[in-house]
C-alpha cells in the first residue's frame, strides 16, 4: 500500500502511465481486432501490421533524442494528435494503401509515450515503477481487443468513435503534464550523444543476448500459437481467449509484487528464475493435449513473465546515460526490436515447413539458454559497476 501511495503521489508519472494505458488499449484494439475484421485482404492487414511495428521500433531512437532535447509534454501531445489523425484516415478512407500509411502513422504517434514513461522512472524505484508501467501496458494491449470486440457488434463507426475519444482523453492528460521534468536536462550534440551511447552498448554487451533473443523467442510464437491451440489441443476460440485471459491476469497481478521483490533482493535471481520458468512452461505446453494442462501452463507463463520483466527492464535502465534518458531508451528499444522483426517470419516458416509445435519448442530452449547464461553472469555486480563508471 505504501508503494502504491508513493507512485500515485507522483502526478506526472501517473499521467504518463494513464496515457500509456490508453495508447496501448487503442493499439491493441486496432491491430488485433479492427484491422483483421475491417473487410481487408490478408496481405493488406499483414503489411499494415508490419508497417505499424516498423515505424514504432525504428522511430524510437529519433523520438528519444527529441524527448531529451525538447519537452516530453510536447512530444507526447504531438504523438497523440498524430494517432488521432491516423484513426480518422482509417475510418474515412478505407483504401488499402491509406490503411497501411495510417497504421504506420499510428505506430509513430504512440512511440513517444513509451519513451517518455521510461525516461520518468526514478533510480530508487526502478523495478517497482517498471512493474507498474508494464501492468498498464499488458492491461491495455489485452483489454483493447476484448472490449472493442463487444462494440463491433454495433458497427465500425461506434468502435472508431470510442477509440478516437480515448485518444482525445489521453491528449487532455498530456496537456496537464508539467512542462519541466524533475531532472535537469543538458542539451548535448547528437554526435556526442551517439558516441556515448555506443560506448554504453559496448559495456552492456553481456545484456545483448537477452535483449535480442528474448524478443526473438516470444515473437516466434505469434504465427503458430492459435493454430497449435486449435489443431493440437482442440480448443475453440472462446477457450483460447479464456487461456489468454488467465495468463494475462496472473501476469498483471504479479508484476508489481515481483518488481518490489527484485528491488529488494536483486535482479539476477528473478532473471534466472523467470527465463527458466518460461522455457520449462513452453516445453510442457508444446506436449500438452488437454485444456486443463494448457490452463496450468498458461498461468505459469504469466507468472514467469512477471517474474522476469521488471528485473530485466530495471537492469537495462542502469545503462541509460544520465540526462539522455529518451535517446538511451530509444536505442535499447530499437535493439530489442531486432528480435521482434525477425521472430514472426522464423516462427511461421518453421511451423509451415516442419511442425506447428517446433517454434514453441525452439522458443523454450532460447529462454532456457538465456536463464542459464545469466545464472553464470554476475549481472547485479556488473550493472552497479557500470553505473558508477
Characterization of this structure:
It contains 16 helices and no strands. The protein has 389 residues and is mainly α. It has 2 domains: 178 residues, Growth Hormone, Chain: A, CATH 1.20.1250; 191 residues, MFS general substrate transporter like domains (Growth Hormone, Chain: A). Helix 6 runs antiparallel to helix 11 and helix 9 crosses helix 14. The longest helix has 29 residues.
What's the helix and strand layout?
Elements: H1 2-9, H2 11-34, H3 42-69, H4 72-92, H5 96-119, H6 126-151, H7 156-175, H8 190-203, H9 208-220, H10 225-233, H11 237-265, H12 268-286, H13 291-317, H14 325-353, H15 358-376, H16 379-388
Helix pairs in contact: 2-5, 2-6, 2-7, 3-5, 3-14, 4-5, 4-7, 5-14, 6-11, 6-13, 9-14, 9-15, 11-13, 12-13, 12-15
Helix-strand pattern, N to C? HHHHHHHHHHHHHHHH
Count of DSSP strands? 0
SS class: mainly alpha
By CATH reckoning, the class of the largest domain would read Mainly Alpha
Average pLDDT rating: 78
Q: Number of helix segments?
A: 16
How far is it from the N-terminal to the C-terminal residue, by CA?
Answer: 35 Å
Q: CATH superfamily of the largest domain, called what? A: MFS general substrate transporter like domains
Biggest sheet overview: none
Amino acid at each position: 500500500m505504501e508503494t502504491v501511495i508513493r507512485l500515485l503521489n507522483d502526478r506526472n508519472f501517473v499521467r504518463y502511465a494513464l496515457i500509456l494505458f490508453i495508447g496501448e488499449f487503442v493499439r491493441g484494439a486496432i491491430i488485433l481486432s479492427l484491422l483483421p475484421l475491417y473487410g481487408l485482404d490478408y496481405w493488406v492487414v499483414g503489411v499494415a501490421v508490419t508497417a505499424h511495428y516498423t515505424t514504432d521500433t525504428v522511430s524510437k531512437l529519433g523520438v528519444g533524442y527529441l524527448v531529451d532535447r525538447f519537452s516530453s509534454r510536447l512530444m507526447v501531445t504531438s504523438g497523440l494528435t498524430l494517432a488521432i489523425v491516423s484513426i480518422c484516415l482509417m475510418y474515412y478512407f478505407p483504401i488499402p494503401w491509406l490503411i497501411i500509411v495510417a497504421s504506420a502513422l499510428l505506430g509513430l504517434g504512440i512511440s513517444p509515450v513509451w519513451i517518455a514513461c521510461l525516461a520518468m522512472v526514478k533510480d530508487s524505484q526502478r523495478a517497482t515503477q517498471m512493474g507498474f508501467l508494464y501492468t498498464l501496458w499488458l492491461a491495455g494491449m489485452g483489454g483493447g481487443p476484448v472490449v472493442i470486440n463487444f462494440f463491433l457488434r454495433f458497427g465500425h463507426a461506434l468502435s472508431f468513435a470510442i477509440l478516437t475519444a480515448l485518444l482525445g482523453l489521453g491528449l487532455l492528460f498530456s496537456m496537464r503534464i508539467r512542462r519541466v521534468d524533475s531532472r535537469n536536462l543538458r542539451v548535448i550534440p547528437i554526435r556526442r550523444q551517439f558516441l556515448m551511447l555506443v560506448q554504453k552498448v559496448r559495456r552492456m554487451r553481456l545484456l545483448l543476448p537477452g535483449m535480442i533473443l528474448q524478443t526473438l523467442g516470444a515473437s516466434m510464437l505469434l504465427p503458430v500459437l492459435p493454430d497449435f491451440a486449435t489443431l493440437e489441443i482442440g480448443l475453440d476460440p472462446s477457450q483460447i481467449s479464456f487461456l489468454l485471459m488467465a495468463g494475462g491476469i496472473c501476469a498483471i497481478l504479479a508484476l508489481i509484487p515481483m518488481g518490489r521483490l527484485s528491488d529488494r533482493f536483486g535482479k539476477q535471481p528473478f532473471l534466472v528464475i523467470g527465463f527458466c520458468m518460461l522455457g520449462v512452461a513452453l516445453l510442457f505446453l508444446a506436449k500438452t493435449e488437454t485444456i486443463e494442462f494448457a490452463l496450468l501452463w498458461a498461468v505459469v507463463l504469466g507468472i514467469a513473465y512477471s517474474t522476469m520483466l521488471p528485473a530485466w527492464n530495471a537492469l537495462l535502465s542502469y545503462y541509460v546515460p544520465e540526462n539522455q534518458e529518451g535517446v538511451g531508451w530509444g536505442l535499447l528499444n530499437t535493439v530489442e526490436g531486432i528480435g521482434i522483426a525477425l521472430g514472426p517470419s522464423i516462427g511461421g516458416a518453421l511451423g509451415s515447413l516442419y511442425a506447428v509445435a517446433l517454434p514453441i519448442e525452439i522458443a523454450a530452449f532460447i529462454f532456457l539458454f538465456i536463464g542459464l547464461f545469466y545464472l553464470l553472469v554476475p549481472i547485479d555486480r556488473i550493472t552497479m559497476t557500470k553505473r558508477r563508471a
